[in-house]
Amino acid sequence: MAGARPNALDLPLPYPVYARAGARHAIGEIARLAAPSHRVAVISDTVVGRLHGESIAAQFPADSTRLFTIPPGEQEKTRDRWAELTDALLEWGAGRDTTVIAVGGGVIGDLAGFVASTFMRGLPVIQVPTTLLAMVDASVGGKTAVDTPFGKNLVGAFHNPSAVVIDPEVLVTLPADVLRSGLAEMIKHGVIADPSYFDAVLRFAGAVRDHGAQAPDFAATITTLITGSVRIKAEVVAEDSREGGLRQILNFGHTIAHAVERVLNFELLHGDAVAMGMVAEARIAESIGLARAGLAVAIADAVERAGLPSRLPPGISLDDVIAATHGDKKARAGSARYSLPRGIGEMETADGKWAVAVSDEQVRSALS
Ligand SMILES: NC(=O)c1ccc[n+]([C@@H]2O[C@H](COP(=O)([O-])OP(=O)(O)OC[C@H]3O[C@@H](n4cnc5c(N)ncnc54)[C@H](O)[C@@H]3O)[C@@H](O)[C@H]2O)c1
Ligand SMILES: O=C(O)C(=O)C[C@@H](O)[C@H](O)[C@H](O)COP(=O)(O)O
Ligand SMILES: [Zn+2]
Where are the transmembrane segments (predicted)? Predict the structure, then answer.
């Protein structure tokens, strides 16, 4: 398995994950080992393309490598951009001898991963995450997708990467709000799986909130925490790669988060939506008698310590949010379902199911 690859993390995944300072300089070598190919298509956004896409592309022969970029932001994770990128690949002459390298945050990882999963029915993709959120969550597990006006990630595919290359050095250029938003998925990993990881994230969250990547010991501490998150995610997806059951716990906070994102036309950062979604869903879990009293306050404290929003955006219509939850992929027979915690490190499960049906009235009474 992947652990046999030199320098890869020892994880229960069918592909190697590398996480170390300077790893981006070895992408040429890693790609030749993990996905040997004739052509290389580096897909990025215009910001990350300039910062890293060009130098990563330069690690491959110039006559068979091209950098493709789109504008940055969640609003670009669309079917239109998928069509634009697949057309550009066809025009360039890409074929089944092409490897895609996704260099960017979760938007690029999801979109370029979806391009790779569909182009000529599937090309290898190497994920090179450049945001904290993409390093700890989006780059691992093989979910790829685009958004639609009906909601988040509604058109997509499971398509595992051939390798994941995490280089924490690239975090230094991240805007403060984007860096912070990655802490939300790390807090989520603590809540769903590991109280001691939750505490470790909390111990560092204030320093990241106040000093960003200039926080004392940032490089060493963030590398340890990224590895902790990747391990939690890897253990979940190794057991349930296609979300038949257990994997739904990675969706804690996301029923509300995705609904809020849709209602706000994808104008907020995913991590910020997850932060407020976790607090809201912990309140739902408490109010239906599932979670221990105090859980929602504990998660709200964690989220606030990280400088993230703990309340739904002012003025947003709760009715609109509740209506949007019905489009969630976990919904069944018209009912929204939520993956809910009982406590930190303890998720609700009943009869092998990891998501609970909650009525609109219960949601309204918990959140209004
Ligand atoms: N597939 C999954 O399992 C999974 C998991 C979690 C989130 N996601 C998806 O990830 C997306 C959110 O990703 P995100 O939070 O990384 O946002 P993002 O990809 O939109 O990136 C945020 C911003 O950071 C900039 N940026 C990226 N790296 C940079 C760097 N090193 N230096 C300077 N600027 C940089 C980008 O240009 C962009 O403007 C959402 O669409 C979400 O649905 C997917
Ligand atoms: O990997 C997973 O599974 C997750 O749910 C991780 C989430 O953080 C991520 O936002 C994912 O894209 C959500 O997936 P979706 O299936 O709810 O769209
Ligand atoms: Zn998420």
Answer: none
- Ligand 1: residue whose CA is nearest its atom 30: 174
Q: From the candidates 143, 180, 283, 305, which is the catalytic residue?
A: 143
Q: Do residues 12 and 27 share a domain? A: yes
Query: What residues have CB less than 8 Å from 21, skipping those under 6 apart?
Result: 167, 168, 169, 219, 223
Last residue of a domain, one of 147, 173, 199: 173
pLDDT tens sequence across 98-107: 999 999 999 9
8 Å CB contact between 348 and 342: yes
pTM of the model: 0.98
pLDDT at residue 4 in the model: 55
Residues 284-306: pLDDT tens digits? 999 999 999 999 999 999 999 99
The two structure tokens encoding residue 222? 């963030």
CATH number, domain with residue 131 = 3.40.50.1970
Domain that holds residue 145: 2-173
- Pocket test of ligand 1: the residue of 143, 178, 254, 265 to mutate, having most ligand atoms within 8 Å of its CB, is 178
Instruction: Give me the CATH number covering residue 206.
Output: 1.20.1090.10
